[in-house]
Structures are given as structure tokens and as C-alpha cells.
């Protein structure tokens, strides 16, 4: 007697209509009969029992071993303060001798103070001079604010201390008295305006050139010698 092909049936899922759960067929035939193809007839018994296919244990033994690598060391363990490391490395590049750091550091005795007159030499640009209003300490981003007058108009400029364009910052003149404020913004007012620094800077550059050539030192020694001779002459005349 030939093997009768198995019949697979399925039922229409239930739906909810007006808060009632009931079985609602979509057509007159609620069940459909599906016959297996001819090539699957030899496996009819296995399909009924559900044992068709490879053993699941074979997949466990044939599973590919995935290599497990140790995680790389954490950056926090290598560098606890990355921002401080970057700041110190950049300062070492742009200020190898530490001269600029000594001007803006709060612990330096020769640091710049508000009210001082500065002369800043810049690469491929004209030098800038003015009264120091404030020093902004921000690590590699430190800057100073200078104020001067051009054609009787007040002008202010921020200068980055560690900028590669800044070649030198020279202290032309100290303020007569120590400022009680970290920012002397009151010199912007007409009654406290310091005016231009052109005359003071020109005198400073003149003395600097004289010191470089050696004429000023010889002139100072000559005046000192004349003073000594004058004092000796007065002493001898007084003794007579």
C-alpha cells in the first residue's frame, strides 16, 4: 500500500472585535490541506516527529573559537592630567628659556604688574607699546592687554604671550606706585588717562642703542670722573 503523504494544516489566528475574542475565519474553509512535495516523501516520518536535520550537539563541537585579546592599557593610567601635559609641552616648545613665563607667572618676583609700560617686538610686524592694563593667566593661552593712544584716540590690543609671532617683551618703565587692582581699567576714563607712550619708548630705545654701542657707558664714566675731580678741588680749597 503506497505511503500517504502527510497533511499540514494551519488555523486562522484569532482577532479582537468589540472587546470579544473569537475565532473569525477569513473564508469558508478555515483549514487548508497542504501536501508535501515528492522529494520530501521519504522524510515524512522524521518531519512528523521533528527529528529532521543535524544534531544540535554537532554545532556546539564545531563552533569556531573566537580569540580573546587583552584590552589595551587605559589612557588615564598612563596620563592622569592630559590637559596639563599638553600645556607644559607647548610652553616648553614656544618658551624654551622661560623668559616669557617669568613675566606672567604670579610666583616670579620680576613679573609684569598693571600700569607698567611695555614694548612688544613682533615678527614681520611693527612693534607695539602701551600701558599694561591686565595680565590674563591661562597657561599656553596667556595674554596681556595694552593701551596706547594713536592720533589722540585710545587703542587697546590683546597680545598672546606664547605666540610664535611675539619675539620679545621688554619692560620700558615701571609704574611709580604699586596698583591695588589686578585690572586698572579706570585709565580708560579721561580724568585717569595716561596718554601716549611714544616719548617714553623713544627715550628708552635711544638709551638702549647707546648702551649697545658703548658710548653711553663711556660718557657716564667721564661724568663720574669730572665729579670726583670737582669734589677733590673743593676739599683742597676749603683746607686752605
Can you walk me through this structure?
With 240 residues, this protein is an alpha+beta fold. Helix content is 32%, strand content 20%. It has 7 helices and 9 strands, in the order ββββαααααβββββαα. The strands form 3 sheets. A 5-stranded antiparallel sheet has the order 8-7-6-5-9. Strands 1-4 form a two-stranded antiparallel ribbon. β2 (15-17) and β3 form a beta hairpin. The longest helix is centred in the last third of the chain and has 25 residues, at 215-239. The radius of gyration is 46 Å and the shape is elongated.
Features:
240 residues, alpha+beta, five-stranded antiparallel β-sheet, single chain, 32% helix
List the helices and strands and how they pair.
Layout: E1 7-8, E2 15-17, E3 20-22, E4 34-35, H1 44-49, H2 56-61, H3 75-78, H4 82-94, H5 99-104, E5 117-122, E6 128-136, E7 143-150, E8 153-160, E9 166-173, H6 198-213, H7 215-239
Antiparallel strand pairs: 1-4, 2-3, 5-6, 5-9, 6-7, 7-8
